[in-house]
Design goal:
It is built from two helices and 43 strands. The protein is mostly beta strands and about 500 residues long. The strands form nine sheets. An eight-stranded antiparallel β-sheet has the order 40-39-42-37-36-43-38-41, with no helix packed on it. Strands 1-5-6-3-11-8-9 form a seven-stranded mixed β-sheet, with helices on one face. The chain has a five-stranded mixed β-sheet with strand order 13-19-18-15-16, with no helix packed on it.
Length: about 500
Amino acid sequence: MSLSGSGTGIDVDLPFVGRYRWEYDRIADRLRELNRTTVGGGIEVVGSCDGFDPSDVTVRVTWASGASASGTARGDPVTGKAVYSVSKSGSALGYAFLTARYDGPCDVRWRGGAGGVAFDQPGAVVFGSTFVKSSGFNVGPTFQLLVYPTVDLRADRTAVDPGETVELTYDSTNADRLTLSTAVDRSLRPPSGVAEAVVNSPTTFTLTGSGPAGERQTSVRVGISPPEITSFTVDDDRIAVGETATLSWQTERALAVEISSGVGLRPPTGEAGVRPEETTLYTLTARGYDDQERTASVRVAVVDPPTVSLSAVPATIVRGSRTELVWQSTGADRLEINNGVGTVRGPSGRQSLRPSADRTYRITATGEGGQTTATVSVDVRDYLEVTSTLTLEYVGRVQLPLLAGPVDRFRTTTPELFGGDHGIDLALFGSRAYVTQVKNTSGHTAVVSNYDEETETAWWSGLLDDDDTTDDLDDSPFLGTWELYTSPQARPPLGVPLEVTWRVDA
């Protein structure tokens, strides 16, 4: 291609053909044959790259001469070489600028020299210059297109147990030297191969490839597998208040172990005793590298202790009479009373006893939540004096021979008083019970009497104002029929009370 111009110079783009430095002597001979003042140069590609296309490389020639300058620029391809040349005719001194450019996908840099000045720079474009004189031959510049290395590094596993070995597979192109870096640098033989390394903690392996264009790196990280909780157990998941349960655990690859609910930091494997006051969930957190965590939980149920109560009805008896033990319980699997009573049924019950002397009875309730006890004392006396309120039921209105008018009659029999209320057995003690005091609590003046219904014999009778008391009873037997007579009332009550104090001797 021939171009001419003045003042501003001439430009031409020449294609790159081939991948090696051209043969200067051969081109020089050719240019001498043309008998011209010519400058020429070439491009050398160092390295290889997938996808490299020579057409992605161009050379731009800018002719900058004096006002009357003219010249030619041409591409003169030689098989397998890159060739460019410019020529100048005339006697004036002139010079040309040459620009090399790469627009392809490869990772490259340029290196060369022009006019005695060396250059080395990355990127797609570099600049060189050459001078065209009035006579003679001046060669320059020459460009090198350097392809950077490519490196690839793969690990057979991304996570391992501490102390395990990993295989690192590497590949490279355009690399004269390969270095594998961890804590210590290690040389590898290019272009590819397999290396082994022991991993004790998360490790980043860096592969550096060095070549004419410079260095390129790639990295792969091998971590430590997450922590594992092999076991987390409790020896007894149901305990009573105050009892101790033992937590046991085993972990792998754990840097720290922490247990909730106040247990705190613990070694990776161990035991700990706990004594919760209420049902508690214990959560174990195992922490490993890279903030990895695993958790497991166990629940310890705190079972409430059983409840039990014990009473005696009555708690004070006359010797030879009976009392009744009464109990109530919850949460008990077994109930036992001392002093010869033994195991009793639950959750509640009653048992009649006839202690010959004072006794303290203890009931023990045993359940999942432990043991609970309750006690009651029974006082055994040689005699017993009791105040009872009798209820005399309305019988009707009657006429008594000694009274001028009719009266309201109320009546009851005493056997109803015997039994559980006072622990007195009628068959044994009824004949020994005698009255020591009578109080009229009917609310009216009344005639009160106590008599034997079978013989119709009155044991005692008397006139008492309301709320009056008498103890002039001559040891009247308590056993029998009690009657009370009052003046007629417009609406007699269904019953009236009478307070009687009586005594039983053993």
